[in-house]
Amino acid sequence: xxxxxxxxxxxxxxxxxxxxxxxxxxxxxxxxxxxxxxxxxxxxxxxxxxxxxxxxxxxxxxxxxxxxxxxxxxxxxxxxxxxxxxxxxxxxxxxxxxxxxxxxxxxxxxxxxxxxxxxxxxxxxxxxxxxxxxxxxxxxxxxxxxxxxxxxxxxxxxxxxxxxxx
Length: 166
Fold this sequence. Notes:
With 166 residues, the protein is an alpha+beta fold. Helices cover 35% and strands 30% of the residues. The chain has helices spanning 8-11, 25-50, 58-61, 63-75, 140-150; strands at residues 17-20, 78-82, 86-91, 94-99, 103-110, 121-127, 131-135, 154-157, 160-163. The strands form two sheets. It has a five-stranded antiparallel sheet, with no helix packed on it. Strands 1-2-3-4 form a four-stranded antiparallel sheet. Residues 5-11 have low confidence and may be disordered.
């Protein structure tokens, strides 16, 4: 008697692929500059305090480090994974998982809207009825090809991916 289970190959999971975020040069430079300032101000202030030139000021000695730590926890690392059944975007401690079958559209946009992305050249991933996530994978063409192969409802329509109804 034939079994009702699908063939073993049909159950095989695909490899999880990880894509780093694209980093705009200017945004990377701003980030490096902020890190230098956030570390430099407390070091300079500590030198002033130890040299007897001023009293310790917590706003100068600690606040830049606290802000840097907060920004770091929401921005580093920033990456995207294509898993067997989901697109997972991670930015620091924040993780968003979107079922691949829920994706209805993927299009290229240029946006400064807040997103887990270090570039303004982004992909807008629409899913569900009205939800959207902006991402900026470094190897965009490879990301789109792999997403298309894992999300059977998506077809190329011009230069974007869009879901179709069967």
